[in-house]
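Bug #77: duplicate submission created two jobs. Keeping one. Sequence:
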Amino acid sequence: MNRILIKNANAYTMLTGDKEYFKGDILLENGKIKEMKKEISEPDAEIIDAEGLVVLPGLIDAHSHVGLFDFNSDNANDDANEMTNPNTPAMNAQYSTDAAAREFKFYYQSGITSVLLTPGSGNVICGLAFAAKTYGDNIFDMTIKSPCALKIAFGGNPKGTYGAKGRLPMTRMGIAQVLRDILNKAKSYMEKKDKGENPDYDADLEAILPALRNEIPFKMHCTQYDMLTAIEIAKEFDVHFSLEHAWGAADYMDEIVQSGCDVCYGPIATYRTGAGERRKIDIESVKELDDRGVNVALITDAPILSVETLINNVGEAVREGIKINRALRMVTINAAKVIGAEDRLGSLEIGKDADIAIFKGTPGLDTNAKAVYTIIDGKIVHKLN
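Kept job's structure:
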């Protein structure tokens, strides 16, 4: 029986009220959190003394392309974008993800234990995203949930892909029309199935159905120019969705709040002002979004930026006035809600996956904070020497 006992934990649980912080011992057994109380005695367990350290649920990156893009070799490749048709909803990112990509190691060495992996943004409907643990050698064994979102992209990426080919969509209005056309087809297909009419099988339309039925969200890549379009289309089809990147969210605060969407904000390491789609970096908006009840996750877009920037994002949020306990929620329980796996991930609770990050220093507050231990599924996968 695999047991680890974390003694003297000083923990952010990501719960609320009088359970927000925990001081005591945490017992992990067979990959789950077994017990949490002031003092636990388990002589057969492996002991980690967390005195003077900070204990957190494993961090989560809710938007990544690690293992799909490879920028680290002479033969750099893009397995994230099937840019042969503006709509490729049946494509599943699982089948392009290389579990041996070195960024996975950087993830768990940084205390990041789970990640939502998504197709790129070259198409209008790009494909299906899935969530995985960051440690392992078989991506299917590492998978937490598949699919957990349907990726959609607005703006410059699909415009650039198909505009260069002189075909639809080469404008923002073209993107909106391409998206609405296929969603209407999928809606009609769904209605026929629900009536027992058995339409001819269509893999792409089948892939859209879980999103139309609100079993998974639409994951909508958009920036300041396209957020209102995303919100209007989501409203038209009555679907749950997240705004991805969401630079310029401050311009549409009321509309975002009223829509009930999630926001996966970031990454932040680009120009703060100027022309173009990635030029209004208003991370201060995440405080207002959080204050107004929006579920906000901070993201890296790795390997576009390094995986460690997830913690940098937490620090930037704190610098903009967010309390550390709220900022840490944006890379734990909030991100777990984006994935749709908050029953397993994102907080320290009995019965949840034993994914735990133990830091020297508080990430987001201390610039030299480092993960001393990372535990995934109740196994120590990283120990700082």
